[in-house]
Structure formats: C-alpha cells, structure tokens
Amino acid sequence: MTWSAEINVDLGRPESGWIRFAISHGDQVFSTVASNTPYDSVAALTQAVVEVAKGSDEVTVPLVEEPCEAELQFRKAGDCMCLSVTAYPDHRRMAGIGRRGLELRKPCLGICLAFWRALRRLEAEVSSPDFERAWGHPFPTEKLTELTQLMQRMKADGPGWQAGGA
C-alpha cells in the first residue's frame, strides 16, 4: 500500500532566511514562503512530525510569512490524523479570524511518511553548511534521524498501526 501517494509535501531550498513550504492533497493546495525568524520552522516541523509519530494528540507548527502567519496543526482523530493549515493576518493567530487553507484526514503513517520524505529530500539536496548559511539555523539532523527510526518502526508495524499505537 502507498501510504502517502495522495499527500505531497515539498520543502524548497532555503534562501536568505526564507523557505518554501508546499502541501497538496487532491485539489487542496497550501503553499507559502516562511521566514526563519522568530521560529526555526524546519526544526519545529521535524519535531512536530516526531511527536505525531510517537502518538501525540495535537501538535502545532507556526510558519511566519511576515507579517502574516500560517499554522500547521496535526490532530488525532480516532485511528487517523487530521492535518489542517490555517492562515492568519498577523502573529496573534486569534480564534475566529483565521482562514482554513487545507484540511485532510489520513492514517498517521501516510502523513508522517509524506513529511519525512520531504525532509529527507531537503537534507539530500542541500549540504549542512549551505543549509545553515541560507536558513540561519542548522538542519535538524538528529531529529530527522529519530524520525527515520520511528518511520522504520511504523512501517514494520504494518497497516494496522495507528497514532498512539504500538
């Protein structure tokens, strides 16, 4: 079974403290260029996917677009995970003023696999020194190694694996 075939995550090469994040699923598309300040969004995203793979109920990743912000939210929903992206006009991310840009519900493995593949591609395409120079933060190598180990375990557990299981 191809767990992430319907989910495409793309992380562009960082440049001058900015990086492109794109997520698509069917006709839903979210794309933005995020700043490296005040959050290291690449490290926050990697940590979030690690937490999802470990079974966390809810994890949020802010993406600063200056002055706007977007929020990726991973939320447990039964035996699946919901991934939603909400765009806000500023850093306050106040309830009721955000605009939902993408929402999907898939098995946890499918969502984690799509993000893991995007992070691995980014790691392979940009050397660590070049990444740090262009992004302003080091690549989260240790967290990606941890995520890789979790992905191996999840895949070995097979199609019955659920968020928070095994």
**Proportion of helical residues:** 25-40%
Structural class: alpha+beta
Strand order of the largest sheet: 4-5-6-7
The first-level CATH class is given as: Alpha Beta
Mean of pLDDT: 88
- How many strands in all? 7
Structure commentary:
- By secondary structure, the chain is of the alpha+beta class.
- It has one domain (7-156): Secreted effector protein pipB2 fold, CATH 3.30.2450.
- Helices cover 34% and strands 33% of the residues.
- It is built from four helices and seven strands, in the order E-E-E-H-E-E-E-E-H-H-H.
- It has helices at 41-53, 108-125, 128-135, 141-157; strands at residues 7-11, 18-25, 28-35, 58-64, 69-77, 80-88, 99-106.
- The strands form two sheets. It has a four-stranded antiparallel beta sheet with strand order 4-5-6-7.
- Helix 1 (41-53) runs antiparallel to helix 2 (108-125), helix 1 packs parallel to helix 4 (141-157) and helix 2 (108-125) packs antiparallel against helix 4 (141-157).
- The longest helix is centred in the C-terminal third of the chain and has 18 residues, at 108-125.
- Mean pLDDT is 88; it is low at 160-166.
How would you summarize this macromolecular structure in one to three sentences?
The chain is an alpha+beta fold and 166 residues long.
Task: Draw up the topology in text.
Layout: E1 7-11, E2 18-25, E3 28-35, H1 41-53, E4 58-64, E5 69-77, E6 80-88, E7 99-106, H2 108-125, H3 128-135, H4 141-157
Antiparallel strand pairs: 1-2, 2-3, 4-5, 5-6, 6-7
Helix pairs in contact: 1-2, 1-4, 2-4
